[in-house]
Each structure stands twice: as C-alpha cells, then as structure tokens.
C-alpha cells in the first residue's frame, strides 16, 4: 500500500537578506574577541588562571601575624604554580597568595611551597608593611 501524505509537501528556500557591511571598528572588535578566545583555548592548562583554596588557612594565619589593621585586607587570590615543563616532576611547584590591601595600590605576596610552607612574604607597588621587603 503506498504511503499517502495528508497534504502536499512543499519545499521553500529562504534567501537570507543582505546585511550591511560592518564598520572597521566593529570588524576589529570581532577579530580581537575571536583572537582572545582562540588564544585562551590554545594555552596549556598551566598557563591559564588556576585560582584555588589551597593553603588558605596558612595564608589567613600568616596575615593575622602581620601588623595589619582590622579590615585592611581587600581581597585574596591564591594561585598554584603548575608544572607544565617536566612530566616527571611534581604537578604543583608552589603556591602564591596575592593579597590586595585597602591602604595601598599594590600587593602583599605570600610565596609558599606546594605543601603550604611559607618561603617568603613581600610587598609590591606602594604597599609597605613593617618587617617585609618591598619590590
């Protein structure tokens, strides 16, 4: 028995309307955005941002031991130093905590091992803390 369709089948083709040409700034913006996306996708995982909570308790304890005013800490960003060059070495080489303070336009940096042992602390920019070197 032949298959019967309830209504005749019609195909229609839609021709997209012509869009106006983009301006030079719009083309540049699109090209830069596409390049940034491509660049981020091609970076090895170790070179991309690696925010973590690793060593957060050690960082908090270290900040409590420094001569900082209450409420002085604006933000803390903890970043793992990931090993991408050596397949036989440890996966994480170290950890840095970058601390933004309310009183200055710089950073307090806490440099640690992968096991959260504090190697050194120093300040960057115009931040100054008694007893710490500044670079």
Give the spatial strand order of the biggest sheet. Answer: 1-2-3-4
Given helix and strand content, the structural type is alpha+beta
Strand residues, percent:
25-35%
Q: Compute the number of structural domains.
A: 2
Overall 3D form: extended
Helical segment tally? 2
Radius of gyration, in angstroms, nearest whole number: 27 Å
For the sheet with most strands, the description reads: 4 strands, antiparallel
Poorly predicted ranges (pLDDT <50, ≥5 residues)?
40-49
Residues in helix, %: 10-25%
Give the overall average pLDDT. 79
Number of strands: 4
Termini separation (Å)? 88 Å
The succession of helices and strands, N to C, reads HHEEEE
Overview of the molecule:
The protein is α+β, with helices and mostly antiparallel strands and 135 residues long. It has two domains: 21-45; 51-125. The protein contains two helices and four strands, in the order ααββββ. The chain has a four-stranded antiparallel beta sheet, with helices on one face. It is extended, with a radius of gyration of 27 Å. The N and C termini lie far apart (88 Å).
Key features?
135 residues; alpha+beta; 2 domains; four-stranded antiparallel sheet; extended
Short description:
It contains 2 helices and 4 strands. It has 135 residues and is an alpha+beta fold.
How is the topology of this model organized?
Layout (H helix, E strand, L loop, with lengths): L23 H19 L13 H10 L7 E10 L9 E10 L4 E8 L4 E8 L10
Antiparallel strand pairs: 1-2, 2-3, 3-4
